[in-house]
């Protein structure tokens, strides 16, 4: 256990240092994520010019939702397609197979380091935004809900990582996987509530979406933060989120074990 | 011109052969583009389940606008994005050297050497949207002239998108490491798919004359919905030509600064 912590801790630290070398890129990359929001907010402002409440949401809540969704995405969105595809196609994977470490936990540590720094940058930005536009956003003050949001964000990150990792494993079977990656991204973006709040969908579609893992990548933590869930919904949500974290974690490992048997170390 | 078309046809045949050997990717890419269109329409679905109109646009008018945007945007994405998005990479790595050595105009080569057929074929998804919207719009009976003008404005829209992206990626000539500049284009194009009426006056002015993204789909769609208006058609064609000239100027001004990478 301790040797594991040391190994993956080292991978985590190395990635932190590596990313910190390109600080300007880190800050710019995270802040430009917020640019596409401009058009979305203008669109919703036009909707709210006609009504004070839309599907039970106030304008303040919707603004908070979209900004928080964008912020959470830069901490949660995992895209490994290029890196892992390169490892598998160019035979670089052989290097990792010889090391006494798990490829899954290694990448999890590396991505976690990246996301930690993203979280710091985004948190500073949100703080500045909150101070500059005091009162225009919904600020959750209940410490219990804030704690649950943080816990749910961690689980969401793990689920998002497992999905990305599993999709990358298709590189053992296919020669190009970017299209598969894009397909997953599309479903994840739309069904996790990245485009519009899932709660605004017709009830039947909304409830169906709650059965899929995507809802627990973004929608669920955001709803906790906004205080939109009842006690029962919270409990049910965490049950689903933890369940999906377990199932998708096992699925990712199984996909790895199946795939690596086909690895031919071409070019290594 | 005939020579350029022959060259383009060669590129196209190459890509076709390549695409046909990775058929699954082709179908997935087509599905993705159609899927994004569905998601975009679902956003409007959510909005119109709550309000009756959007800044004066009825649901079917918005559907017509969305179809027009899809037609312009997917054609642009299929033909130009795979090329223009490579420019900053060519500058950074010095691969631009090979482009400059080719016996064909560098801007021509950089603009059209690849086609993304999955994206391009997904423009067909715009047609049912336009047809459904047209059938439900009262008094919608475009004449042959309307259709001809519509097609012309679609081409002008593609030209404006091309100019915007070319000008933005050319920034890489001045700031080689600015990988974030392309994000600027993707943020700007978001303003293209919505009714321009939702923007306030100053924003609409900026999005018409400075960064002319709001007129790309709005003008052709409005023209079809509200009748042929010569002044608007002329305005859009003028802006498209001007945008092309400016973008070309920015690109060549940048190219003069190109120093190649150390090799």
Please count the beta strands of chain A (DSSP E, at least 2 residues each).
2
Which whole number gives the mean pLDDT of chain A?
89
Portion in helices of chain A: over 70%
Largest sheet of chain A: 2 strands, antiparallel
Strand content of chain B: under 5%
Rg estimate of chain B, integer Å: 19 Å
Strand adjacency order, main sheet of chain A: 1-2
Q: Give the total of domains of chain A.
A: 1
3D architecture notes:
The complex is a heterodimer of chains A (268) and B (263). Chain A is mainly α and 268 residues long. Chain A has one domain (2-260). Chain A contains twelve helices and two strands, in the order αααββααααααααα. Chain A has helices spanning 2-21, 23-32, 37-48, 59-76, 81-89, 93-98, 103-132, 143-168, 178-191, 203-209, 219-226, 231-260; strands at 53-54, 57-58. In chain A, β1 (53-54) and β2 form a beta hairpin. In chain A, α8 (143-168) packs antiparallel against α11 (219-226). The model of chain A has no long low-confidence stretch (mean pLDDT 89). Chain B has 263 residues and is mainly alpha-helical. Chain B has one domain (2-261). Chain B contains 14 helices and no strands. In chain B, α3 packs antiparallel against α9 (126-136), α10 packs antiparallel against α13 and α10 (144-169) packs parallel to α14 (230-257). The two termini of chain B are 35 Å apart. The relative contact order of chain B is 0.13. The mean pLDDT of chain B is 88. The A-B interface holds A 25, 28-29, 32-33, 35-36, 38-40, 42-43, 45-47, 49-51, 54-55, 174-176, 178-180, 182-183, 186-187, 189-190, 195-196, 200-202 and B 22, 24-25, 28-29, 31-32, 35-36, 39, 42-43, 46-47, 49-51, 53-55, 118, 177, 179-180, 183-184, 186-187, 190-191, 194, 198-199, 203.
């Amino acid at each position: 256990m301790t040797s594991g912590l040391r190994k993956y801790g080292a991978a985590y630290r190395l990635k932190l240092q590596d990313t910190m070398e390109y600080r300007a890129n880190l800050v710019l990359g995270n802040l430009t994520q917020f640019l596409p929001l401009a058009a979305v907010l203008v669109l919703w402002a036009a909707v709210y010019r006609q009504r004070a409440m839309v599907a039970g949401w106030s304008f303040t809540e919707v603004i908070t939702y979209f900004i928080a969704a964008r912020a959470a995405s830069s901490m949660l969105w995992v895209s490994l397609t290029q890196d892992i595809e390169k490892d598998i196609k160019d035979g670089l994977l052989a290097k990792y197979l010889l090391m006494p470490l798990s490829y899954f936990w290694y990448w999890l540590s590396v991505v976690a380091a990246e996301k930690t720094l993203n979280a710091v940058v985004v948190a500073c930005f949100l703080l500045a935004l909150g101070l500059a536009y005091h009162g225009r956003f919904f600020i959750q003050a209940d410490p219990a809900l804030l704690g649950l949001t943080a816990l749910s964000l961690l689980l969401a990150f793990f689920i998002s990582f497992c999905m990305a990792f599993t999709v990358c494993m298709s590189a053992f079977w296919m020669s190009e996987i970017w299209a598969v990656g894009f397909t997953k991204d599309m479903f994840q973006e739309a069904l996790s509530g990245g485009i519009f709040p899932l709660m605004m969908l017709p009830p039947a579609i909304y409830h169906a979406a709650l059965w899929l893992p995507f809802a627990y990548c973004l929608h669920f933590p955001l709803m906790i933060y906004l205080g939109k869930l009842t006690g029962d919904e919270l409990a049910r949500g965490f049950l689903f989120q933890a369940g999906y974290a377990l199932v998708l974690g096992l699925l990712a490992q199984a996909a790895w074990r199946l795939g690596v048997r086909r690895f031919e170390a071409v070019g290594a | 011109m005939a020579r350029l078309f022959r060259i383009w046809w060669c590129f196209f045949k190459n890509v076709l052969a390549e695409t046909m050997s990775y058929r699954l990717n082709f179908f997935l890419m087509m599905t993705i583009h159609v899927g994004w269109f569905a998601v975009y329409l679902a956003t409007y679905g959510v909005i119109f389940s709550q309000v009756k109109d959007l800044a004066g646009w009825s649901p079917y008018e918005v559907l017509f606008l969305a179809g027009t945007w899809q037609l312009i945007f997917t054609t642009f994405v299929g033909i130009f994005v795979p090329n223009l998005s490579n420019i900053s990479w060519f500058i950074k790595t010095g691969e631009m050297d090979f482009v400059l050595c080719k016996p064909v105009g560098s801007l021509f080569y950089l603009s059209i050497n690849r086609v993304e057929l999955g994206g391009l074929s997904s423009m067909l998804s715009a047609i049912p949207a336009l047809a459904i919207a047209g059938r439900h719009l009262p008094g919608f009976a475009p004449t042959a002239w309307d259709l001809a003008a519509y097609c012309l404005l679609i081409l002008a829209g593609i030209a404006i998108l091309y100019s915007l992206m070319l000008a933005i990626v050319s920034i890489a000539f001045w700031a080689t490491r600015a990988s974030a500049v392309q994000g600027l284009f993707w943020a700007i194009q978001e303003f293209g798919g919505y009714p321009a009426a939702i923007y306030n006056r100053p924003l609409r002015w900026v999005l018409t004359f400075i960064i002319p993204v709001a007129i790309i789909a709005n003008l052709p769609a409005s023209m079809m919905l509200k009748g042929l208006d010569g002044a608007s058609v002329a305005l859009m064609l003028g802006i498209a030509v001007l945008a092309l000239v400016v973008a070309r100027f920015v690109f060549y001004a940048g190219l003069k600064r190109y120093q190649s990478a150390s090799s």
